[in-house]
Amino acid sequence: MLPCRPVDLPAQEIPSWFVLTAAFLFGAAWGSFFNVAIYRWPRGMSVVTPPSTCPACGTLIPARHNVPILGYLFLGGKTACCKTRLSPRYALVELLTAMLAVAIAQRFYVGAPESATVFGAAIHAGLLFIFVGGLVIVTFVDLERMEIPDEVSLPCAALGLATAPLRDPAHIGDYALGAGGGFLAIQLLFVWSYEHLTGRRGMGEGDSKLLMMIGAFLGWQGALFAVVAGSVQGIAVSIFALVTGTPLGPDLEALEAEERQLAGVGSEPAEQERREDPQEHELYEEPEPSYFGHLKLPFGPLLALGAIEYLFFGQRIIELWFGWIGSWFG
Question: Under a CB-based contact definition with an 8 Å cutoff, are residues 179 and 161 in contact?
């Protein structure tokens, strides 16, 4: 009789403490890469070259200062080369990604069915980590720049659809419907139709691509849940911001100044952007950007939060919701 290969072992044969510790370290390491992607992708930069450099003076960061989470703490939140204060976002992304990796490992590896093998459970958890990691990148890019990078949503949507037969072969149609239906619902209703009726953008095209990605991994149920939960939580955030006077969204003027500086145009803002219409030969003012709900509230992070809530608690939340409704009409 041939000996059992490691990949054929039951997933429960690997001690849970080892799995969760490895997941934390794995997640923290990838969180460091996510920080690079969050900074570079919106600026059109490669995430491969150059190696990690100081955002202020461009000095290469040695490996000993680039340890996830600990590097930020040991340096007191400042760069070692020029003592420029770093955003706490760096440590936050690394810690958040590590915690999400542990949650995925606990739910989908340690809590996998008894029939699951080491290989099968690891692949399933790994695919979901890629999905959740993409949501982390989307969240912080959208919070900082009001945009969702196609480098995340499009490849992840393709990966979700391609691996649907591996993750859940009985419900392939749900994932296809979630991806296609999610994209069309946002694009038709909240991008094209809303803009046609009101002259303003309700959502951006990045939101429709993000919902396509969510549907490809969670099916149409997960995409619908993400929209509903994200909208409800977005209303709550908006009400809180209006009551407390808390500003929402990034400082777009600062971002525009940064882009002009990177392009070599200069950092002084122009009084008014104008251009000539080739048809009318008249100067006209560029329209001011508008935002969902007339507030600078990026919707991508709310969709991402709803997707993560569905991934871990969706079925339980739905059962509680319909149970509560049933108690009112029962």
Answer: yes
Non-local (6+) Cβ contacts of 315 within 8 A are none
Q: Between 330 and 113, name the one with better pLDDT.
A: 113
Say which residue, 279 or 252, is predicted with more confidence: 252
Q: How many CB atoms neighbour CB 152 within 10 A?
A: 25
Classify residue 209 as exposed, middle or buried by CB count within 10 Å of its CB (0-12, 13-18, 19+).
buried
The pLDDT, as a whole number, for residue 7 is 62
Which helix (DSSP H) or strand (DSSP E) does residue 110 occupy? none
The three-class DSSP label of residue 283 is: strand
Q: What dihedral do alpha carbons 191, 196, 198, 203 form, nearest 10°?
A: 10
Question: What does the DSSP 8-state code read for residue 187?
Answer: I
CA–CA dist 228, 246 (Å, integer): 24
**pLDDT tens figures, 276-318:** 444 444 443 433 444 444 456 788 999 999 999 999 998 888 8
Written as six digits, the tokens of 275 are 């251009």
Banded pLDDT at 9 (limits 50, 70, 90): confident
**8 Å CB contact between 267 and 260:** yes
Q: What is the DSSP letter of 164?
A: H
d(CA 303, CA 183): 13
Terminal alpha carbon distance of the chain:
60
Mean pLDDT over 52-58 rounds to 80
Q: What pLDDT, on the 0 to 100 scale, is given for residue 274? A: 39
- State yes or no: cis peptide before 50, omega within 30 of 0: yes
- Dihedrals phi, psi of 221, to nearest 5 degrees: -65, -45
Q: Give the pTM.
A: 0.83
SS (H, E, C) 41-79: HHHCCCCCCCCCECCCCCCECCHHHCCCCHHHHHCCCEC
C-alpha–C-alpha distance, residues 136 and 128, integer Å: 12
Query: Are the C-beta atoms of residues 46 and 40 closer than 8 Å to each other?
Result: yes
